[in-house]
Design a protein that fits this description.
The chain is an alpha+beta fold. The chain has 2 helices and 9 strands; from the N terminus they run E-E-H-E-E-E-E-E-H-E-E. It has a 5-stranded mixed beta sheet, covered by helices on one side. Helix 1 runs antiparallel to helix 2. It starts with 9 loop residues before the first strand and ends in a 9-residue tail after the last strand.
């Protein structure tokens, strides 16, 4: 059991659904948002005793800036990592979403999924669910 106040980033890849599930404490989500804004960085993820519901646990989230256009979310299974690549504008928009989730005061989650005309995700990007630090479902 984690000491109170200490949480860890957890990233699960669900290949059959074509998406990833990201959870962690507010501090971990803010660190991810900062890496996104910087356009570079690596945030470690850890294995959990919690059930993975058929997902594959990933060891890290790697952020890489490029000329885009847009942001592509994909999985590098060889390195067991989530790779988020994109241009400055797209990475900043994604960072804003992650930061707003980190600041939630109740449970909940946000789906980040590509659709034609998406304002920052590129075609071929995996879907990503980012969970509130208080859990994926509201308690109130």
């Amino acid at each position: 059991m984690e000491p109170k106040g200490l949480s860890r980033m957890r990233v699960l890849f669900f290949p059959n659904e074509g998406g990833v599930d990201v959870s962690g404490g507010a501090a971990e989500l803010v660190v991810l948002a900062l890496a996104l804004v910087a356009g570079e960085g690596c945030v470690e993820a850890t294995a959990s005793a919690e059930p993975s519901f058929g997902g594959t646990e990933l060891a890290s989230v790697q952020v890489v800036g490029n000329s885009g256009p847009g942001v592509r979310i994909r999985v590098d299974l060889e390195h067991r990592g989530l790779l988020i690549e994109g241009d400055r504008q797209g990475l900043t928009a994604l960072a804003d979403n992650v930061r707003s989730i980190a600041e939630m005061d109740d449970g909940g989650h946000q789906h980040i999924e590509y659709f034609p005309g998406h304002y920052y995700l590129a075609a071929g990007s995996l879907a990503m669910v980012v969970n509130s630090p208080h859990g994926g479902m509201p308690t109130r």
